[in-house]
Each structure stands twice: as structure tokens, then as C-alpha cells.
Amino acid sequence: MLDAVWLVNAESLHVVAANHAAGELMAMAPSQLVGKDVIELATTPEDLFFWGEVAQGLSDSIESDTLVNDTHGVTHAVTRRVSRVQAGGEPPYFVVVLHDRSEQQRIERELEGASADLRATLESTQDGILVTDLVGRIRNFNQRFAALWQIPPDMLLQRDDDAVLEWMRRSVGDAPGYMRRLAAIDDATMLQATDVLRLHSGRVLERVTRPQCMHGRPIGRVYSFHDITERLEANERIETLSYTDALTGLPNRRLLADRAEIAIAQARRDGTPFSLLFLNLDRFNHINETLGRVYGDRVLLDVGDRIKTCVRQVDTVARLGSDEFVVLVNQADSRAAETTAWRMLDALKQPFSQGGMSFTVTASIGIALYPTDGASMDELMRRADAAMREVKHAGRAAFRFHRDRPEADHGVSRSRMRLDHAMRLALANERFRLHYQPQVDLNTGAVIGAEALIRWRDPELGEVSPGEFIPVAEESGFIVALGDWVLKHAVTQAARWDEAGLAMPVSVNVSALQFQQPGFVDGVAQALREAGLPPHLLELELTESILVQDAQDAMLRLQALAQLGVKLAIDDFGTGYSSLAYLKRFPIGRLKIDRSFVSGLPAEESDVALVHAIIHMGQALRLQVIAEGVETEAQRECLRVAGCDLFQGFLYAPALDVPAFEARIGFVGPARD
């Protein structure tokens, strides 16, 4: 619309001419405006003052906003510009230009209303909204956005975009990943995307982003943040309920099966065994009948808690229902499984107190080993269950490994019965031999000891692995005679070295059953005396189960051995469950880190953490720490940096016969006959 123009006589203030636009503005013909006094056309007091006072002294132009009324009484908002002009001797005139702002004001009011509606909409949504332009500058946001991200109020008042965006970056758990995704979004202006952000505060946000367009062209981006924390927690609760036992909160059969599959996959990949222990409470029905199911449930809760104290975090304790529990012990051979079983039986021996009564609960435990006893969870469960039932028939309150029966031997060439018979013949015919693995100082590289390890080559069976015949010897009780043979021959060899000028301490493994024999300490003393070996050159490596079966008896035996001058060590430390109190009380001088923890160094963070913890524990208790199974330079260096004292393993040498051992360490003794 064209501007309205009046030509006004500066002396009389009468309109002398007006254009067509002026007539439209005032709703009259332009000719009707001619002769009108502008003071009569004035609408506001400010106009009266302007024409009566200001205009008379006007020498240039002046512009202001005012109002005019047309002949219909409609008020128009206008911008008025007044200029004084005079040509030659003509009288002066005012040129009055009126720009109608009514439409502009209407549009502004509509925009303000729309903006208010938009703001109300933004503030009413439960989502946090952030609007940015194409270069990432913040154009708008709602209070829910500020609340979700916990942005400080003073930062919002300063409207510092960089500070707000940096605050968001620091709030996200995975800041590098967050920045990579943000860069990808910025590079693709038309991208629509959804992802999930986990904040340090614990809140989980679902982020939805889409382009903001005008006339089909992107002008910015809208981010919507929806708090899904409670939804995820609800889903997790549902998931937990589907995988856990309702009474105890322990894993149920479904979760046990999942973890067994993981253990099987890891065992196939790494060649490490694991154990499945099936535990059934003895005469539990009597508790239910005597005290009622409410008290029976409390006992089950207590049993579950006690079993959990007997295993590591990497292991699984599950309840199958009623009075049956299953324990999956990761990276555990027969020795570690035995330690776990002893620990659980010992934990259950402690009296239970319910309803003012004190009573004892015992359990029968069956053990199956992977892969010896089965290649699937179902097979292992059946065989562990069968072993448990054998314990029940034999009198309860004990544990037993699964044993193959000849008629059920599906092509297994070396049954346990055959091995047991062959071992006894081998011992009688001196077919066993000892090899020695060097133990090396991590800092100096010097060989400071050797571990005696039994080997067996049978004329019929060939080379038989200790992993095959030792579990059979432990089950049959033959381990006592076998252990005595190892002790005697290792002491004899150490004495020969000492006599030849090589003071080489020798470590000998002692089984729990051998240690418990009434004459064990006297047998050690006799072996030392007959061989003439100084006692400090003999170290006995004991399993952790020895410390937990009968602590008082173990203390007396260990003190007697220490008085002899024999050194004592805990073998495969970390696979069992020794109490720190036991380590402080017993005269132990060395801890041996199990090879299952060393194999993952330095890549596996959990193994690194466990090894560091064992080393620091040893240092705190002033115990020497040795690691077994070291096969790579990276493992050796990781142990050295962590503060480990000694190592043994293929990196330096495997277990060697006497001539090879002496050659490896550079010892030249007297000529042999």
C-alpha cells in the first residue's frame, strides 16, 4: 500500500492537497481532505501539542509514531514524517507522509500470539526441546531441557552457547562417542536420527533429532530429549524377575543355562576347564515339617547367602527350586572344585538360628567337570546330580566327583578304574619320574628355586597327563601314596644338589588328603632326615581348602612344619577362598598366582585387577608372590611392573628332567656314574 501524503499550509495548518492513498487511509475522497485543519484531524493529546507547538519551530524533518481516525471511527497506527519546505517567495508548507502500520501491527500481534502458543507448547511437553541453527548456535529451548541436563541457571541467563554445549558434552558418559555422533548429525543437514545417551547423573535420555525447514530448505535442527530412565529400570526389573529365583534372588535355571553356554564357549576357546557343583540340602523336609515353610524359606535364604560367600564374583550360584542349588565355578579344575565343595560344607556347618531354635544343616554335593564329564550343561547337570545322589546313598554331608562306569564308557579309552589300577602298578615299578620347573626372580632373572612336578609314561597307556591321573588319585585316595613318593624323591634330589654345591629350594605340592594324614608331619621330618636336606630348602605348596576344612588342626600342623624349618606356600591362590584372617594366622611365606589369571595378562582388565590385588595383598602381609604359567614377555613385564617377586612358566622353561634342568640354569655338577 502507498504512503498517504498531505500538503499542509504551515501558517494556517490547513490541508491544501492530498493524494489518493491519503483518501483511502481517512475513508474519504482526497478532495474532502482539502481545507481540513490538521488540528481537527488530531487524535491524541500528543498530536495537539505537536501541531500547536513543535511544528511551528520545525526547520527540518521529524518522524514519530501516532494514531489517526478515519471517518468510520477506525483508528490506524501510523508512522508520521513531517518535513518543512519553502520555494522562493512562496509561503512555507509541511509535507506530511503517513505510513499505515496497522497491518504490520496485526502481523506482529499474530506472531506474538504464535510465539506464545509455541512457548506454551514447548513448556507443556515432558520432553526437553533444543533448537539450533545450521552452525549449532542455540535458538530456543524449554525449561524441561534445562532440567533434564541439570544446566545451572546462571549459565542459562548468560546465554553462552559454547558453555551450554560443553556442559552437555561433560554430562554424557561416553563423551567421545557423543561428539562423533553429533558431528555426523551436523554433516547431514537432512538427517533424522534417534539414539540413547547415558548421563553421569544416572539418567538415560532418548534423543530424537530432525531438521527444521522453511520453504523446503533446512534452517536449523530440533532436538527432543525424552527421559527413559524409569522405562529402562522397569524393563530391567522384568528381565531380572525372568532370570532370578523369586525367593532368594539368585540366578534361576534359565540364567544358569546362559552362563553355562558362555563358560563352555570360553573353555573351548581357551582350553580351560570349569566345574558344576550340584548341592542338595540333607533332610530339608524335616525343617519344613518342624518349623513350617516360613522358617524353611528363611533357611534357604541363609543357605544362598552362605554359598555366595564361598565363591568368586565370576562364579554363579543358582537355585533350581526347593532345596537344590547349583554352583558354576569358572576356570576350575578338580582341585578348585574340591576347594569350593569343602568351603561350602564348612559354611553350612555353622549353626542356623530360627524361631528360637539352633540347628545344623548339611548338604550333599555332586561335582561334574567340563569337558571330562560332559560337553553340554544338560550332561554336566545329569552327572553332577548322579554324583550328588551317590553321596546321599553313602551317608550324606559330603561331596563326590562324577565317576564314569565301564558300561557307560562311550569309547573313552582310559577309564578311571583302569587309570587307578595302572597308577598302582606304575608306583610299584618305579615308572613315575619328577621334572623340575625353574622359579625365576622377576627383577634379576636369577633362578632361585624349582617346583617338582610328577610325570608318567606308561608302557600301555603312553604319556599320561597329570590332569588325567591326579583327579583319579584324589578320588580313590591313592594321592596319599603318590604324594609321599613325590615328597621323598624331591627331597632326595634337593639334597644331591645341595651336596654338589647347588642350594636349590624345591617346592612340592601337597593334597588336602595327604596333609590330613595323622603321620604327615613326621613323614616330612623323616624324609628330610634320611636325605640330609636342610629344611629351609624344602617348600610345601598347599591348597586353600586345607585352611578352611579344620582351621585348628591345620594351624597345629602348619606350626609343626614351620618349627621344622620348612617353607610353606599357598598354591593356585585366587581360585579358592582363603580368609585374610587365615593368611595372617598361619605361617605362610608365599602366595602362588594361578595360571588362569596370568593367561589373560595384560589384555584382560579383570585379570590385571585380580593379579594386582593378590600382589598388593601379599605385600601387605609381607608374603612373597610367585606367578605360574608365564608364557610371554608381555605377561612377565606386566607382573614385574605390578610388583610380583617370582615367576615360572614356558617363557623361561617348562618342567625339565634333572640333566636338562641343570643345563638350563648353567649348573655343572660332579660327574654322574
Question: Which helices and strands, and how do they pair?
Answer:
Elements: E1 4-9, E2 15-18, H1 20-26, H2 30-33, H3 38-41, H4 45-54, E3 61-69, E4 75-85, E5 93-100, H5 102-124, E6 128-133, E7 138-141, H6 143-148, H7 153-158, H8 161-171, H9 175-187, E8 193-198, E9 204-214, E10 217-227, H10 229-243, H11 253-270, E11 274-281, H12 284-291, H13 293-308, E12 316-321, E13 324-329, H14 334-349, E14 352-354, E15 357-359, E16 363-370, H15 377-394, E17 399-401, H16 416-428, E18 432-441, E19 447-458, E20 462-464, H17 466-476, H18 479-499, E21 506-510, H19 512-515, H20 520-531, E22 538-542, H21 545-549, H22 551-564, E23 567-573, H23 580-585, E24 590-593, H24 595-598, H25 605-620, E25 624-627, H26 633-642, E26 646-647, H27 658-665
Parallel strand pairs: 16-17, 19-21, 21-22, 22-23, 23-24, 24-25, 25-26
Antiparallel strand pairs: 1-2, 1-5, 3-4, 4-5, 6-7, 6-10, 8-9, 9-10, 11-13, 11-16, 12-13, 14-15, 18-19, 18-26, 19-20
Helix pairs in contact: 12-13, 16-17, 18-20
CATH architecture of the largest domain: Alpha-Beta Barrel
Number of strands: 26
Helix content: 40-55%
Helix/strand structural class: alpha+beta
Q: CATH superfamily of the largest domain, called what? A: EAL domain
Kindly describe this structure:
44% of the residues lie in helices and 25% in strands. With 673 residues, the chain is α+β, with helices and mostly antiparallel strands. The protein folds into four domains: 102 residues, Beta-Lactamase (2-Layer Sandwich), CATH 3.30.450.20; 107 residues, 2-Layer Sandwich (Beta-Lactamase), CATH 3.30.450.20; 158 residues, Alpha-Beta Plaits, CATH 3.30.70.270; 231 residues, TIM Barrel. The protein has an eight-stranded mixed β-barrel with strand order 18-19-21-22-23-24-25-26, surrounded by five helices. Strand 6 and strand 7 form a beta hairpin. The radius of gyration is 45 Å and the shape is elongated.
